[in-house]
Request: fold
Amino acid sequence: MDLEIEIEAMRVLESALALPPDERMAWLTVQSLPAAVIARARDLLAAAPDTRDFLETPALSAAPASFAPMMPQPGARLGAWELLRPLDAGGMGVVFLARRADGSYEQTVAIKLVRVDEYAGASRRAELIERFDNERRVLARIEHPNVVRIIDGGSSVGGIPYLVMEYVDGVALTTYCERTTLGVAARVDLMARVCDGVQAAHRHLIVHRDIKPHNILVAADGVPRVLDFGIARALVDEHGAQAEATRTALQAMTPAYASPEQVRREPLTTASDVYSLGVVLFELLAGVRPYALEGTSPAQCERIICDTVPPALRKALLLADLPEAERRARMAGIGGDLERIVARALHKDPERRYGSAQALGEDLRRQRDGLPVHAHPDSLGYRALKFVRRHRLGSAAAAIALLAIVTAGAIAVQQAVQARRSAADMVEVNGFLVDVLQVSNPYASGSEVTLAEALDDAAKKVDERFGDRPDLAVDIRYALGQSMLARYRIDAAEPQLLRTLEDSESVFGRNDERSVRTLASLASLRKEQSRIAESKTLYADALQRIEAGGLHDSALHSTIRNDFGVMYLIQEEFADADRELQRALEIGDRADPPISPEERAQTLGNLAHAARGLGNLDRADALYGEVQTIFESLYPHGSPYLAVVLNNRARLARTRGAPKQSFELLKQAVAMHRRSFEGDHVMVLVPMTNLSRQALDLGDLDVASEWGEKAVAMGDRMYVDNDHIYHAQALTTLADIRHSQGRLGDADALLERARASLDGLETPHAGSVSFYEKVRERLCANSGSVARVSCRKS
Reply:
């Protein structure tokens, strides 16, 4: 926007509005002015009926053109202030940058001048200015870090009211988010603080009436500030009386952000501002506004806003003009809770919206923190799911099982045919849950027991409590088995999952979703046991049942395809992995309900791993970057998911010849994993092994030895009864380190152990065997090492 043209057009508009409506356009066409000014004035004149009434006071008869006051120009004085240059202009007036000019002190401010030329008569003008001053005094009482403060005000010599505001050297909210490429979580956090500022005005019974991104500035410090309260209306006057609400007068507003009651010219409450906040939130997340109003008439605009239900966030996001990577990142960060929050804020009925801006802000923070949101219908299963997602780390993996028990009980109750049986089921499951909690209570059990230990103990009691109710036992056993598998207690998880599959097939059938999910979990368990052939068979069986059970468009189908692809990744069959993972992504995108943001990001990360294996390093790097952005948005304080991405990016950096970058990424990954898993776990073992290998490549033998020894010790504890490629890789890495240290005998012994572990695998692992052979060749090539056991066996 050219501000000089805008200001000149505003002056022309002031004169035109003083004429009778049927003479304005004709007068405008004969003016000797630049074409750009005429065109802009014509646009403003056409829009004038929607913006002409500043304080909801009825318009009177027009004043003569000669009476219209002129807008002050740069250099003019307004009280103690000198206008420096225009900052912005619009239908309501012009905003200038100004400075304190009376010598009292130095201060830079923004001054908004409001045109009032439509109001005729000295007495009416005085009444308008008095009312304006009353509202200015009320607004000046608002002190909040997210509100631009009102400092002063008055009227010019020509009678134009003005407001002196704190100057914020920032940009509009949407501009700031785009320039800084903020993720969904950061955008939600910004909007929560905007709600805080609006709530501060609501506490003083002030309705803003024109909340939009342009009226929310964000400075370099990232703090949002709500401004332009100059067109707000007090719900009560300064003496506490109810303020006048004129239904017939046109209101100052921006239609694209206005509430239904606002466009219907009805009296406004704070609920109108809540609606406008919902529109801004929608635009920030989806990249488009909920309604397309461009080119519509005022009547059409009113019908759309009042009668059209806006699309869901994710549906709108598909139509937004965004780069595909950005669209995917936002899609991953927008879940059902955010969609419900926006839908509630945008409800047509003010009574069905959030009761206040504060309530909207609190729900946004609850969504950000993984807590149940008030916009979601309350239920036991929903609260359980939110608890699980908040506590993904460390021993909280066990809490998944605990909450899943509650969820399972709720599901079982819902599925029961008879009401009496349903009530009895709920009592039974809740009683079992209480017993589990009592075991972990030291005052009840006599000793301090961890939640994980309590759940393991609960597994022994399922038969005792639910021996005659396999329909209830299925969900409980599955939750317990998944908890054990997540904590890498493979041997304990196996009998639980086997029994779950048997009971589920008997009670619900082979192709029921509960049976299929358990079969897929067993396939994952066999994969962890290195029983690859059996794992492939189980995955194939699960996929056949998916089709037979009509589950081909389900999130479960996407999850199984992803896990199947991971199995191919482990076997370094990258083309097959890429195929399965692409299908998983396609299925997940069309599933209803869709896969979670975490699951989608995991699949993208696995695709990056496949691309790396296929030699497409640029694609791998781009995908890893996209996944890292998603997880950093979802988990700003770190998570196992993010640690996996860091580990994989480190391996990619190593492949691309950047060992130092690889080493730093690995250190971050190991530290993050160790915060998540306090005990022995494969998610810690693998990055520790990679870290020791990278330290060896950099020539830091002390660090390499330290982490290599830790990895082998962990592998020894984890794989006592079975051989595994991760154990073999740790042994081979430490052997390579010992060779570099000149400890040839130790290197030889470690290589022998690695060879035995590789020989014990059901399916050979080419990458691990190749690594072993390289280390063995280096050892055998060393002077005097021909007598080494590993060399004699070659």
